[in-house]
Design brief:
Length: 314
């Protein structure tokens, strides 16, 4: 598993696991107040039955009873997990099950206009109104990177299907078209999440992680700290003093290796000034101003120490 995905899953476990029930309760209360849950529950019951395929305008193959049962199991698992990543992966399995069944009739290719009625039919047959809460949970908590490609396509497809089922009038045929309100809601959501993604990208570009080696006599440590664009090395030095518990920061200086020598970092230096000197971010040392640099050396791989670090030899 990639490191970033593992970290994301760990964060979900720490943060979302205890919050999930509260978030779901808030969403349920919201939709009870606006009547969404009631309309969805009522229409799911009205549509379920032998006439469902005709009522929904299904023109392709659909999952059989065993396939519908498998989809139900996926939806049960989806409701149990707290991770939006796990939820969307289960949702992908549901939609692919529908898509596979659609193509099984005469081997024809299928379009989104055909997919939506078939997906709606399966949702009706499963009769689990809570899927609305699950979909909104994913739409709001998934990272923007998960909202592109298949994840975003099928997630918005399920949302569109739920909107269609809610808006269905018993006296009117299933049009397969979203209401203006649903279209506007999807547009607003897409724009908002796009803005969030842009802000996140800008924040990532405005900060850099730097490795800091601290050593003072018998004390030594290495920490990775954030050095934001626009902040000088003086601000970073203050952060180092706080991080390493230094009581007399005026006696310490930030150093970096340049041309094989340890040099004091200029007070007004910024992250971009050092970016080209170290792959993955600069590696600095926070040492006493009277440190004996004659004891500094670079260890090789034979010493089992990362070459990117500066190490003091006592």
């Amino acid at each position: 598993m990639p490191l970033d995905l593992a970290l994301e899953r760990a964060m979900f476990s720490c943060v979302l696991r205890p919050l999930r029930s509260h978030l779901e309760k808030a969403l349920v209360e919201l939709h009870n107040q606006d009547g969404t849950c009631q309309r969805l529950t009522k229409n799911l019951l009205h549509l379920k039955g032998d006439a469902a395929m005709e009522r929904l305008g299904v023109r392709t193959g659909v999952p059989d009873s065993r396939g519908v049962e498998r989809v139900k199991q996926k939806l049960v698992l989806m409701q149990r997990t707290h991770s939006p990543i796990d939820k969307v992966l289960l949702l992908l399995q549901v939609c692919k099950c529908v898509h596979k069944a659609m193509g099984s009739l005469h081997g024809q290719e299928v379009s989104w206009d055909d997919f939506l009625p078939s997906l709606s039919y399966v949702i009706v047959e499963c009769n689990r109104p809570h899927i609305l809460i699950e979909v909104e949970y994913m739409m709001e908590l998934l990272e923007p990177s998960w909202l592109g490609g298949e994840g975003g396509y099928y997630l918005t497809s399920v949302y569109a299907s739920l909107c269609l089922i809610q808006s269905l009038d018993r006296e009117q045929p299933f049009s397969g078209c979203l209401t203006p309100e649903a279209q506007e809601a999807l547009k607003e959501w897409s724009c908002r999440r796009s803005r969030e993604a842009q802000r996140q990208k800008e924040n990532q570009q405005s900060q850099r992680c730097v490795r800091i080696l601290f050593q003072d006599g018998e004390r030594s440590a290495v920490r990775t700290l954030q050095w934001r664009a626009g902040e000088t090395s003086q601000a970073l030095a203050q952060l180092c003093a706080s991080t390493f518990g230094v009581s007399d920061p005026q006696q310490y200086t930030l150093y970096w290796r340049s041309g094989g020598e340890m040099r004091a970092l200029p007070p007004q230096a910024q992250p971009q000034d050092l970016a080209s000197h170290s792959e993955g971010g600069p590696s600095l040392s926070y040492l006493r101003t009277d440190h004996d640099f004659s004891k500094m050396r670079r260890l090789t791989r034979g010493g089992a120490v990362d070459l990117s670090e500066s190490v003091c030899e006592e």
